[in-house]
Amino acid sequence: MSANSSVAHQFEEPAQQKEAATLGMWVFLATEVLFFGVLFLGYTVLLIQNTAGFEAASDHTLLWAGGINTGLLLLSSLCMALAVTAAEHGNRKRQILFLLITAGLGMLFLGIKAYEYYHEIAHGLWPGAGFEYEGAHQEAARLFFSLYFIMTGFHALHVAIGIGCILWMAAQSLLPARFRPNATSIDLLGLYWHFVDLVWVFLFPLLYLIGRMK
Which of 1.20.120.140, 1.10.132.30, 2.40.10.220, 1.20.120.80 would CATH assign to domain 20-209? Predict the structure, then answer.
């Protein structure tokens, strides 16, 4: 029996198994929403209290890097959707192709993010003992970059986890039929990846644009 038609012993039919798996993923994503929601709420409150300082500090982020990374993640979401469609139609070659492209775009995202971190740390923007910030509102700027590194760091971790899962799914897709991931597995992985991309869509304007929208 192929992976696409197999049903675990606790389920009566494939549809029931898919519904249970989908519900489980949505519950997991709900916990992720709560996690990032706390970070966004905390950032918003502190932004209101330190508006001028946050806006000035935001000008020190690399807008071109954030913009490119936004485009990369949006494109990766499209490729992930195409991988899901290929899996649903049983097109294994296209499934593997789009999974690998998605993972590759995610790696490019992390590479650019790593360069950003290097650039910011080299310019003294790491909010530690060696923090060097030219301009007014130094304490607000330190607070901004503390949140910047925390929020983008956690997001980058989620991207890295997603890349690992995508590469694992692509590798499994090369195995004999009974070991391959089914379409539901690819679909659920797609939900996770789209969530990660959506988080960045909110992070980008909050961290890169608030000082540039005037």
Answer: 1.20.120.80
